Structures
1.
Amino acid sequence: MTTMEHRPTAKDGGVGAAARSRSWGWSSRLPQWLRVLLGTLVVLAGVAMLVLPGPGLLGILVGLKMLAHDIPAAARAEHAVSGRIKAGARKAGARSRHRRPR
């Protein structure tokens, strides 16, 4: 790591300038307002899918990842949601391993 790079700290929520400035491919060419609008719409669609048929948590996670490029608070929320998804997957895996055969 060179002296010019920024290391993420607790102060900025673990998401530093280095993480926000990485190349995002096609989304880095979009204007910021459009990225924020698309990310917000995907998060809202994910919230709707929590009660409607569809992968709600996945939609929320994808939308937060889109927003995390421009909004540090969204990066922290994305980290929390992905942690909940991983914990749920571990819990489901443990349940299926301990199930008695019928």
2.
Amino acid sequence: MEDKFSIVLEDRSILSDICGSNDSNLKLIEELLDTEVYTNGNEILLSSSDQGKIDNFSKIIEKIEDYTKRGGIPGKDLIKCIYSGISLDKNR
């Protein structure tokens, strides 16, 4: 059975912006991390016990949440940039 890691959003009102239209942002995160991502209430969950994926997932969601709280609406380009930045940081 796959382990799950969850991030609880304090502000549930931003959940739909974080997830994207028809969960398009979550689907992109799934592709980038090669694992299932889904929501349950005010939680965003990752189906993985891989610490690298958990770290990347946490950083991506944290940055998207910050961006959304400042009034931005996150999209695929932002998520790809965040993921690329995380990958570059690991190579330094």
3.
Amino acid sequence: MKANEKSSSPPITKEEAIVIIQNMAKELGRPPKKSELPDEIKCRIKPLFDKWCYALEETGLKIPSEKVQEKRRKREEHRQAVERRRIKREAKKKLRDEEKKKNAGKAGRSVRNEDLH
């Protein structure tokens, strides 16, 4: 199938793709290589996984190396730390805005949205 042609086959779910890959592994007696998949199947599976190794991992046919697992763990920890900082920053901003409104109320004047930022 050429790059500019569209597949006439209906899309499949990740679960269906996993079953297809597992069945191929049973037939071959080992995890299949991406190149061993028929083109009509490969073009339907490809959009479901970022990389072929991820497809094999999700089927349970490949276990990522310790190095890869550590890299993913660190990436997830970093993502969580960034999210915690974002939440903390938003909470501080909300408190500052509420404090400005409260102080403006005591002074007997209204606060415009522009004053809060």
4.
Amino acid sequence: MFEYLLEQRWAVAAILSDRTVTKLADAQMLELTDENWQTLESMMPVQASLKRAATVVGGERGLGGHQDDRGVSRWAGRPANELM
């Protein structure tokens, strides 16, 4: 998740700075500082390790999720939205 946010950093900044899209009060609340962005970058290895661990544990239990050929997320062979 951090990876995608980091990839879109400049798009996020552009939207938050565009007053025709985002109110100043909302932008101030949602804006991330350079320190926040650096923290996200430093958390990438931790997130990758957790993702691998979750995949391994899920696979061992037969709970591994994947997307089918239509892009539908599936868990244990059932569409993810049916599990809720």
